[in-house]
Amino acid sequence: FTDANTAKLDKLTDPHDEKASVNDRARSYLHANCSHCHRNGGGGSVPFELTKGSDLKQVLDVKPTRGDFGIKDAKIVAKGDPYRSTLLYRMAKFGKDRMPHI
Known about the structure:
The protein has 102 residues and is an all-alpha fold. It is 24% helix and 0% strand.
């Protein structure tokens, strides 16, 4: 890529930039940390994409298919209740089933 080409690319938002929208911050974090697997052809074992431009309806208030970790009424992302969200749980835990792996 040249500087002229990269200037046209959609930029990710710093997840710590409190001036940016929560939506842009969250989407950028998921894109940078999850979309390498969770995208078409990326090798992820669940049927959703976490690229910056993906439709988040595929994860909002949707039951997880790869375990609920004993969370009551678990969702991949539970709107308004992060403690029912398996995505947050996977990001916060260590060991088996942690996401991202690195």
